[in-house]
Amino acid sequence: MSAAKATPQPLRERNKQLARDVVLDAAERLLEESPNAEFSMRALAVEAGVGFATPFNHFGNKNAIMQALSSRLIERMATRFREEEPEGDAIDRLLAMGRISVELLLEKPTVHKAVVGSLGVAGPHPSSVHQHSGKLWSLALGNFSGIAPDMKDVAQAILANQLAFHFRGCVSFWIAGELQDEELGNAFEAGACALLLGFASPRRRNFLIAKIKSLQRAS
């Protein structure tokens, strides 16, 4: 018996997503071209080739557009991780996710600093970025291999969120200029290894301790 075909997305929904992507692509271009990584909603509509009301109709306001850009950035991190298919246990995979995510941020640092930095601005509605970030680190942790059996339940309950908080903290210091581009990856790795020490199996603890010491010597 042949596998059931996926239900195609309705045309209206496809057109809606296309319009959103056009607006988000235009916002990224304007952020990259602007010396201050800024744009006006009017300039955004012109760049996207849509009516002035279209960005408002699809997002509501500029802050929501920046939140959508941040969520899309996280989706790109996940896509690259899946494409690379890192080998190893949860610890190896998690460190690979950190490397992939930092590399992506550094491809367009000015744009990504503006996008992530905008999340500190309160809006009328909570964003879903934290939720997406937690899912990113859950993807990296996979089946939690390398985690001590007696700590697996606790790790499954809290570790992805704690890693999301840690990554966001490192990126916030990077945005503020307190971490340089070349320091961001090591800062994340050191903190991630420290977090994992409380969960790792005895065999993997030695690796984490050696990794932390190596990062300290490199700093």
Amount of helix? over 70%
Proportion in β-strands:
under 5%
Quaternary status = single chain
Number of strands: 0
Q: Quick check: average pLDDT?
A: 91
Radius of gyration: 20 Å
Overall geometry: globular
SSE order: HHHHHHHHHH
Number of domains: 2
pLDDT under 50 segments (min length 5)?
none
The number of helical runs is 10
User: Helix/strand/pairing class, anyone?
Assistant: mainly alpha
Structural account:
It is a single chain. The chain folds into two domains: 8-60, Orthogonal Bundle (Arc Repressor Mutant, subunit A), CATH 1.10.10; 72-218. With 219 residues, the chain is mainly alpha-helical. The model has no long low-confidence stretch (mean pLDDT 91). The chain is globular. The chain starts with 10 loop residues before the first helix and ends with a helix. The protein contains ten helices and no strands. 72% of the residues lie in helices and 0% in strands.
Question: What is the secondary structure topology, with strand pairs?
Answer:
Blueprint (H helix, E strand, L loop, with lengths): L10 H23 L7 H8 L5 H6 L2 H23 L5 H18 L1 H9 L11 H13 L10 H24 L5 H17 L4 H17 L1
Helix pairs in contact: 1-2, 4-5, 4-6, 4-7, 5-9, 6-8, 7-8, 8-9, 9-10
